[in-house]
Write a structure and sequence with these properties.
166 residues, 6 helices, Alpha/beta knot, alpha/beta, two-stranded parallel ribbon, 7 strands, three-stranded parallel β-sheet, binds S-adenosylmethionine, globular
């Protein structure tokens, strides 16, 4: 759940929040402000590179949290240390991760099941989300097969892209 998205100012950052979360194992993203360009860009990546990642914009965080069955993890530099939080977050439930843009409403801190910091320095929602997801999935999402039309094959030098038959 990405909150505080402003389509003009944040288009690149929110696109990268979505792409990074997809690459690192998330199943989808909610964005609080309606943005059809963003939706189109992310769906185009999914169409080419595979997986079942979904995007929905114009979703209020309060509604999303109310309807969500699982644990809510809010990433904030003020939260408990990621190393302390990880063992407490259940593995047999879905999790919703909330990241902000500018100031996050105080209610988010109250509503979250876990307020988690990725270091105690201010940095970025993209970095926080990527590090948290990589630790949560123990790195397993990085090279998981998405069965896309295109597969990039790791290569020491040069680019190897395989076009898969449909
Ligand atoms: N100053 C804002 C505030 O007080 O909420 C934070 C702005 S920061 C540019 C945007 C988002 O990045 C935050 O809402 C949070 O989700 C994430 N973030 C930044 N630093 C973080 C850290 N050290 N640990 C976890 N999340 C962080």
């Amino acid at each position: 759940m990405r909150i505080g998205h402003r389509p003009e100012r944040d288009k690149r950052v929110t696109t990268h929040v979505a792409l990074s979360s997809r690459a690192l194992g998330a199943k989808g993203i909610f964005v609080d402000t309606y943005d059809e360009v963003l939706e189109g860009n992310i769906r185009s990546v999914v169409e080419r590179f595979g997986g079942d990642y979904t995007i929905k914009t114009g979703v209020s965080w309060k509604e999303a949290v109310k309807d969500f069955k699982g644990k809510v993890v809010h990433l904030t530099m003020y939260g408990q240390a990621v190393t302390d939080a990880l063992p407490k977050i259940p593995r047999d439930e879905d999790i919703m991760i909330i990241v902000g843009a500018e100031k996050v409403p105080a209610e988010v801190y109250q509503r979250a099941d876990f307020n988690v910091s990725v270091g105690n320095q201010p940095h970025s929602e993209i970095a926080a989300l990527a590090i948290f997801l990589d630790r949560f999935t123990e790195g397993k999402a990085l090279y998981s097969d998405r069965h896309g039309k295109l597969t990039v094959v790791p290569n020491e030098r040069g680019k190897t892209v395989v076009e898969n038959p449909e």
